[in-house]
Inverse folding.
């Protein structure tokens, strides 16, 4: 018997609307962006700690850190500043610091303990951040799917003006991603928050050329490649043309 993710009512006193349930539990094809439980829990709550632990395991299974290292080795120029948006608890930035000593983190939350001591940290909304011009390389792991169409258009405006390289790893919005996620949850003893948020994330994920198009990247200015792998990761590398 497959685990059933909790309803939002368990945490916030309301049931999802019908269209939300269709997207989360029945795998509706259109992209739907909904709030995730982890983003609304107190950072120090037991549920938040458990869910972040689950995310670390999922990232290891997906090979996300190794993929970002490979991309930086290929596309990062020595001395270039790197900005990780949605840097969260800091594990990715810490792992990449040897390759990119000028890595900085941007997130709504405060500077985490697991962040390189000399690296900068900006506690700010990405859409209100004013320092984009200083960061030619922008990376994001499981963060772009949090933005709706309008927000991605705004974010793309900043990236189009200032970035040279964009590297993103996101959920792939396909039915088999839900099957895969439901399979691993009991194996890693995932917390109910993780089980719910995972499905919400998949429903907000991307397919094919969606992310560069939503960011409004101009193909005459950018070249990009999209990878959809068997582990249901959607990966984008976009590089500004010379």
């Amino acid at each position: 018997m497959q685990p059933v993710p909790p309803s939002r009512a368990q945490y916030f006193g309301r049931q999802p609307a019908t269209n939300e349930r269709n997207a989360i539990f029945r795998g509706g094809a259109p992209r739907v962006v909904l709030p995730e439980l982890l983003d609304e829990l107190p950072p120090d709550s037991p549920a938040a700690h458990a869910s972040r632990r689950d995310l670390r395991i999922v990232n290891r299974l997906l090979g996300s850190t190794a993929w970002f290292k490979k991309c930086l080795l290929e596309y990062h120029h020595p001395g270039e500043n790197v900005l990780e948006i949605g840097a969260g608890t800091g594990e990715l930035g810490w792992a990449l610091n040897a390759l990119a000593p000028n890595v900085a983190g941007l997130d709504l939350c405060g500077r985490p303990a697991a962040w390189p001591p000399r690296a900068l940290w900006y506690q700010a909304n990405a859409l209100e951040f004013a320092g984009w011009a200083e960061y030619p390389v922008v990376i994001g792991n499981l963060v772009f799917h949090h933005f709706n169409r309008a927000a991605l258009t705004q974010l793309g405006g900043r990236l189009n003006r200032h970035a040279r390289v964009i590297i993103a790893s996101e959920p792939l919005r396909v039915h088999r991603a839900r099957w895969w996620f439901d399979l691993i949850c009991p194996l890693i003893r995932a917390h109910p928050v993780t089980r719910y948020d995972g499905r919400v994330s998949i429903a907000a994920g991307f397919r094919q050329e969606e992310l560069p198009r939503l960011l409004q990247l101009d193909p005459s200015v950018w070249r990009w490649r999209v990878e959809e792998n068997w582990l249901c990761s959607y990966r984008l590398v976009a590089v500004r043309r010379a």
